[in-house]
Amino acid sequence: METREDAAVPLSFELNGETVAVRAAPAARLLDVLRGPCGRTGTKEGCGEGECGACSVLVDGRVVNACLYAALDVEGCRVTTIEGLHDGAGGPSALQRAFVTLGGTQCGFCTPGMIVAAEALLAANPDPAADDIRGALRGNLCRCTGYVQIVEAVRSAAAARRAGADAARAAAGAPS
Amino acid sequence: MSTETTVCTIGAYHRPATLDDALRILRDVPGARPVAGGTDLLVHVRDGREGAPPALVSLRRVPELCGVTIEDGAVTIGALTTMSDIVADAELARLLPAVHVAAADFGGVQIRNAATIGGNLVNASPCANLPPALLVHGASVVLRALGGVRTVDLRDFIVGPGETCLRDGEVLAAVTIPRPLGGLRSTFRRTVRVAMDMALVSVAAAVAMDGGTIGAVRVAAGAVAPTPRRLAEVEELLRGAVPDEGLLRRAGELAAAGVAPISDVRASESYRRHMTGVHVRRALAELTAGGVDGDA
Amino acid sequence: MSAARDAAGRTWVGRAVDRPDGADKAAGRTLYIHDITRPGMLHGKVKFSADAHARIKRIDTSRAERLPGVRAVITAENTPQIRIGFLRDNVVLKGEKVRQFRDEIAAVAAVDAATAAAAVELIDVEYEPLPGVFSPDEALAEGAPLVHETAPDGTPLTTNAMSLTFGHESGDMEAGMRAAVHVAEGTYSTPLIQQSCMGTAGCIAEFDTAGNLRIVAKTQIPFLAQRDFTRILPALGLAGRTVRVIVPALGGGFGTGLDTHPYEYISILLAWRTGRPVKIVYDRAEEFACLSPRQSSVTRVTQGCDAAGRLTFRRIDVVQDNGAYAAWGATYPSVMLLPATSLYRVPAVSFKAQLVYTNNPYCQAMRGYGNPEVTWPIESTLDDLAQAAGVDPLEMRLRNCNEPGEVTPMDLRVTTCGLRECLEKTGESLGWSEKRGRGSAPPADGARAHLRRGVGLASLIHVGGGGKIYRSDGSGIILKADDFGSVNVSYGGVEMGQGLHAALSVAVADAVGVRPENVVVNQTDTATCPWDVGTHASRGAFMACNAALLAAEKLRARIFAAAEDVYAEEVARNVAKARRRDASCEPPPPDVVAGARAADFDLRDGRLFLRERPADELTSVEFGRLLRAIHFRDAGTVFAVDAFYEPPTELPDWERGMGNLSANYAYGTQGAEVEVDTETGEVRILRMAAAHDVGRVLHPTALKGQIYGALAQGIGYALYEEVRTERGRVVNAGFTDYKIPTACEMDFPIDLHFVETNDPSGPFGAKGVGEPGLVPTAPAIANAIHDAVGVRITDLPITPERVLAALRAKRGEA
């Protein structure tokens, strides 16, 4: 039987701001490459068929399921995983802080995917209503929280980000 | 060595930059499969539902397959256009409301960012969202091969569950929709178990009123027959008629009687049949009178 | 965060401090079984049966063995027989006969997961099919094929009825039935439910050179697992060797970790065979089809009341489809007894439970453990009874309400009981008096004529102070104070997302007198933690915090005694330091300092001080500095104290259904307002209320998470979830067709009320709350549907199809 190594080809992409070069087989999923050769285990496999969102990552800023994404399709792309989401200084982002403080994480297995999906939402819609948040997270299953405190965390983080953006604008002397 | 990947039986992964390159690979490697978003094929190969092809041809970077063009109201949607692209296009939403709703109510955002219109049609799943919505807008598909191009009415494209009339070496390149009639309104409705679900039943309808009577009308249903289909008898009944409550009720009954659903783990044959009628009636009510029979 | 104390002397308990495991989880840094590797690790994969009931004629592993990368293939032929399970009726590798689709026939260890998966496909098994039984009715029919021909000890069996007996008879049933003016009855069914942990099951087993087993296991019972695994060592020629169970972060538990599983033993056998660490992790399809779901059940219930709506009797008969083997879940009736005998006051009760072997997948525990199965029919028929009696259902429940201090028919000794307040709060939240009974009235808006609204509620009783179903229901704990003022906690229970460590961190902070960020809860490991029976029965926080209180008291006493020797010197250093800044600084009175004895000290937020001078900086010593002074003096010492908490409970007599199995009982009421689409049968929840007697709030964020999360599971149970089988084969083994609620289903307001009864048995007054939140959800929704459209649904889940069928039946349509 043919082994994977025979068919694996070089793959290079930007992962959380760093260029990585690995080898990947044609059948490899982005999830396999992230968790295996890249050693980023924050992205979880919850179902392997796009139903649960635990493997959510950003590819060129768009949130996708890494379990459904062919690894070789990210050649030259910008991939962001949960490990790449922080406040810029390595500390927790507003979303990560809010998830901890407001009870958005329990067992934590869905949390990385949930935060990545929420990040994509807030990038597109800085002030989402609760229904917008629920709609944006419907591809992310959680069995622990009942989602209530997740939605609260995203709303709170959105407010914190808006306040931070306002403060940054004010500091820069720009008109608000 | 990576420890978490599947044993590879796919020999090669090609990323052509032009459609002709893609078509050449498909000609040269018998059994090679084109992939768009890849959302279903990778899963099916992994779990054994589909055999591993000798090569995959990723169409993701083929520029001819991307983008939406609108000329004089006629729409061409490249096969690689994602559900998210469709949802975000305000002009599409105005011209083709049913298509907009069907794309918006499709999986979660992760799926909408990856799934393409071409993939959704080529999969030919009976319960796919887009076909009924495209059918009521009279869509056709543009099929490209090395030797040329042909255009096929969407009604003739999907021939059975998972089966299309695509020939070897042929790729679905685009979907074309003629300019909608003036005053045409359309809608899409479906039944799901929870928000993240495939349709147990879906119905799309498009109506252009002619004064107090129904002028042009198209009605289509998904997940209630081996292929998504237009409901010709229902359209016949409605054309030229005054949309009163009785007419809409008869349209629903006719729709329910005219479909051929199955019972499976998702729903029973009788419930699917019943819901086809409810959706047809409610869709028509929405389109003809702004919701005489509106629901939540 | 400032550290003000409340009137009860609590600084941190009751406050929403960040949970200690939160930051790593939000950063994706937490390690689950999926993320852990060991040097030289192999990957195991199980070959499952392709038939529900068959003789195994031949197993051919030769093709699998030849596959490059395969290191071992095991079957019953080449491994010792290992019997597992609650009744020892499950042989890990089946050699003669399979009894269910998921039966383990062989297993492979290979260099990677893909090779292992490919190898399993190359194992050929030839079966001789046998007729199967796929429901209790089929299994109990005359002449039915036997799932087990013999008991584990070899005794021939003649029936599929299991020998486990659970029953209860109390009061004068004949008198109760005579006194009944109104009677309601019904037969209710519940389906198989998949616990649906987001992180699937798995383990890594390995042996050291001496033959000691180390297993990282996704378990809720590390110490019972240690016992189970130790039992098999002699069969491997390793008698006398040790077993160490290490618990990784759990991607949810919900009861799946209450038993040891065949895959764990298979992993152990493969590790033993290969001399390498072997990891088995289930994929989602295996989790659905090959891990055990919650039992399905059919319950017949009859209840009667007098003219005033007071209950006079209750009869309950449960038949539970156990599947092919017995797990701990076979003891669901032990918990069913609680609602059967003790939810509301009933003078005469009869309860019987029959468990039946079938060729369906064998079942195990899930959150609530039998309670939801029985509360659903009790609370549904109670509404019917109220209707028959012409009494408002809320009023009916208040008239029969449990009260503090009562002794129930199964001899539960109720300490505190907040049920009355729970009922009242739920009624207020729902707008009960305005909304109940209006469902049939025509809606104001003619365009919405097909929509009907209704409200309903239901209550629960559950164990809140442990649940004794094993000979010890205790928990040990070790508190270790380090040189830097932190307290390490070694506790044998399991954090699986519920917030056990959040509760422990605030409880230890208050009990010892440090800040929560200085409480470090160690990874659960049988080598370092004292024994605990397991994290189930809503007992985690109750037990852990009670044990912590005992240990903290000892720790403080020892530290205060040792502090006598170093205190004066440390205060002198304070004074010297203060004088360097301000030469005029007044020293404290020398006799106060030199005469300070253990009883004079207090410790709070990491600062030792004199009780008489709590605000005085000069006479207070930072905790870490104090510990270092005690440690590094001549004949110094360090502090590690242990405690074992065994709650004041009894192991019940199950055949009679009598015994006070918990130190307290948790109560609660949930209510729902729903809108039913009479054309489609779809049910939309408009609002829910959940009022729970929690004793005392330990950690509000974690507590809310427990109730919201359980509520969502209860809604899934009520409306969406069912593992479907066809002749024993799971046909919806994945989230594509097993639907749990998404965020969009949870789009309605939820009013939470925490009723604080301050139970004397509880740590800081708290009761266990892990399970109650899903117990009354389904009947509350079903009662609201009945209020809306007048149909009584008796089968879960309440799908649109079932509602529509019931509406048609009511209208007299076919």
Oligomer: heterotrimer
Number-wise, the strands of chain C total 30
Biggest chain pair interface: A-C, 60 and 61 residues
Residues in helix, % of chain C: 25-40%
What is the CATH class designation of the largest domain in chain C? Answer: Alpha Beta
Detailed description of the structure:
The complex is a heterotrimer of chains A (176), B (296) and C (814). Chain A contains six helices and five strands. Chain A has helices at residues 4-7, 30-35, 94-101, 111-124, 130-136, 148-171; strands at 9-15, 18-24, 56-59, 62-65, 78-80. Chain A has a five-stranded mixed sheet. Chain A folds into two domains: 4-83, Ubiquitin-like (UB roll), CATH 3.10.20; 94-169, Orthogonal Bundle (DNA polymerase, domain 1). By secondary structure, chain A is α+β, with helices and mostly antiparallel strands. Chain B has 296 residues and is α+β, with helices and mostly antiparallel strands. Chain B is built from twelve helices and 14 strands. Chain B has helices spanning 19-28, 41-47, 83-88, 90-95, 97-104, 109-114, 117-123, 130-135, 154-157, 232-238, 245-258, 269-289, and strands spanning 12-14, 33-35, 55-58, 68-71, 74-78, 140-145, 148-153, 158-160, 163-164, 171-177, 184-191, 201-210, 213-222, 229-230. In chain B, the strands form four sheets. A five-stranded antiparallel sheet of chain B has the order 4-5-10-6-7. A four-stranded antiparallel sheet of chain B has the order 11-12-13-14. Chain B has a three-stranded parallel sheet with strand order 1-3-2, covered by helices on one side. In chain B, helix 10 (232-238) runs antiparallel to helix 11. Chain B is globular and about 60 Å long. In chain B, 57% of the residues are buried. Chain C has 814 residues and is an alpha+beta fold. Chain C contains 20 helices and 30 strands. In chain C, the strands form eight sheets. Chain C has a seven-stranded mixed sheet with strand order 3-7-1-14-11-12-13, sandwiched between helices. In chain C, strands 9-17-16-15-10 form a five-stranded mixed sheet, with helices on both faces. In chain C, a hairpin with a 2-residue loop joins strand 28 (725-726) and strand 29. The longest helix of chain C is centred in the C-terminal third of the chain and has 42 residues, at 540-581. The chains are: A alpha+beta (176), B alpha+beta (296), C alpha+beta (814). Chains in contact: A-B, A-C, B-C. At the A-C interface, helix 3, helix 4, helix 5 and helix 6 of A face helix 1 and helix 18 of C.
